[in-house]
């Protein structure tokens, strides 16, 4: 395996990619009404992503000869857990629980990715890492609605949210492992191809792999609008962020990356405010500022520690 690299710009590329992912609600919310099923929406998103990725992947397939089986395993896991299973679990969480509670629970994702990075890759944590990391997690929870008025009830939604956070957290670690050994276009492209295979299996298993369910009456009645929104979702909020995100992972240790992914939460809140006119409380604005400051301090703290040796 090649030697792991790190750069100060790496975490901020992760943040930029995650923030662009956070804009997806601008297209995903109206598409959910037109396509009627979240799995179908994710399926079409991956179809477009694969169509865009193939010109990047096909000329680079020869690179796979020099990639270890372990890295290929991490790639498959990243595609399955990050692109497909995580999206399905997130949908199930929203279907079975309080959306605000679900989004609060998902903010434990960076804690899980940091734990995995330490256990699996030997990432070292600076002495002042825990307080800044904890502040970032709390700020993220407050940003999406944590407060004295919010009540938690143990239900299936929380269980699905925890499983989703685990999938996405481990996917971050897997993505870092892949980018140490594989080129950016090949890694990003293969991830969405694996994601499409998984979504095809999921959609087929649920009996949705037929023209009526894949393209319902509402989508047919507004075909141009549906296609335009799908393309915007797959490009501006999908493919472009994925390339930026994977480049960031190439230059960022796994224990740090998860906290910069929380910029997706910040962007999502901004989109619901700007596009859907949801009011922001003053404490959410403060939480957003604190979140940016806390993740910057996480990076600064980790710069003082040595990179783990590649294995």
Please give the structural blueprint.
Layout: H1 9-21, H2 25-35, H3 38-57, H4 69-96, H5 99-105, H6 109-121, H7 129-143, H8 156-179, H9 184-205, H10 211-214, H11 217-221, H12 223-250, H13 254-260, H14 263-274, H15 282-302
Helix pairs in contact: 1-12, 1-13, 1-14, 2-12, 3-9, 3-12, 4-8, 4-9, 5-8, 6-8, 6-13, 7-15, 8-12, 8-13, 9-12
Folded structure, characterized:
It is a single chain. It is built from 15 helices and no strands. Helix content is 74%, strand content 0%. The chain has one domain (11-302). It starts with 8 loop residues before the first helix and ends in a 9-residue tail after the last helix. With 311 residues, it is an all-alpha fold. The longest helix is centred in the N-terminal third of the chain and has 28 residues, at 69-96.
Q: What share of residues is helical?
A: over 70%
Shape: globular
Order of helices and strands: HHHHHHHHHHHHHHH
- What's the N-to-C terminus distance? 6 Å
Residue windows where pLDDT falls under 50 for at least 5 positions: none
**Strand coverage percent:** under 5%
User: Largest sheet, if any?
Assistant: none
Radius of gyration: 19 Å
Mean pLDDT: 90
- How many structural domains can be distinguished in the coordinates? 1
Class computed from helices, strands and strand pairing: mainly alpha
Number of helices: 15
Number of DSSP strands?
A: 0
Key terms:
311 residues, mainly alpha, 0% strand
């Amino acid at each position: 395996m090649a030697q792991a690299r790190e750069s100060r710009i790496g975490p901020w590329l992760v943040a930029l990619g995650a923030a662009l992912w956070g804009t997806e609600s601008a297209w995903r919310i109206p598409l959910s009404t037109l396509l009627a099923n979240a799995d179908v929406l994710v399926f079409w998103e991956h179809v477009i992503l694969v169509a865009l990725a193939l010109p990047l992947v096909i000329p680079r397939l020869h690179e796979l000869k020099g990639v270890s089986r372990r890295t290929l395993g991490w790639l498959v896991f990243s595609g399955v857990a990050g692109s497909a299973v995580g999206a399905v679990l997130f949908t199930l969480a929203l279907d079975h629980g309080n959306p605000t509670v679900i989004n609060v629970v998902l903010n434990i994702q960076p804690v899980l990715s940091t734990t995995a990075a330490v256990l699996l890759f030997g990432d070292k944590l600076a002495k002042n890492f825990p307080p800044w990391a904890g502040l970032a997690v709390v700020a993220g929870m407050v940003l999406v609605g944590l407060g004295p008025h919010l009540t938690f009830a143990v239900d299936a939604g929380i269980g699905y949210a925890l499983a989703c956070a685990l999938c996405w957290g481990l996917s971050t670690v897997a993505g870092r492992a892949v980018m140490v050994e594989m080129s950016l276009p090949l890694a990003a492209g293969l991830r969405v191809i694996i994601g499409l295979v998984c979504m095809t299996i999921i959609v087929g298993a649920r009996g949705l792999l037929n023209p009526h369910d894949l393209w319902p009456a509402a989508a047919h009645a507004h075909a141009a609008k549906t296609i335009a929104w799908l393309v915007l979702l797959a490009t501006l909020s999908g493919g472009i962020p994925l390339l930026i995100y994977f480049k960031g992972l190439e230059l960022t240790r796994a224990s740090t990356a998860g906290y910069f992914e929380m910029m997706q939460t910040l962007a999502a809140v901004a989109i619901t405010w700007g596009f859907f006119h949801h009011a922001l409380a003053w404490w959410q604005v403060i939480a957003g500022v604190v979140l940016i400051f806390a993740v910057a301090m996480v990076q600064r703290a980790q710069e003082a520690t040595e990179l783990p040796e590649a294995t």
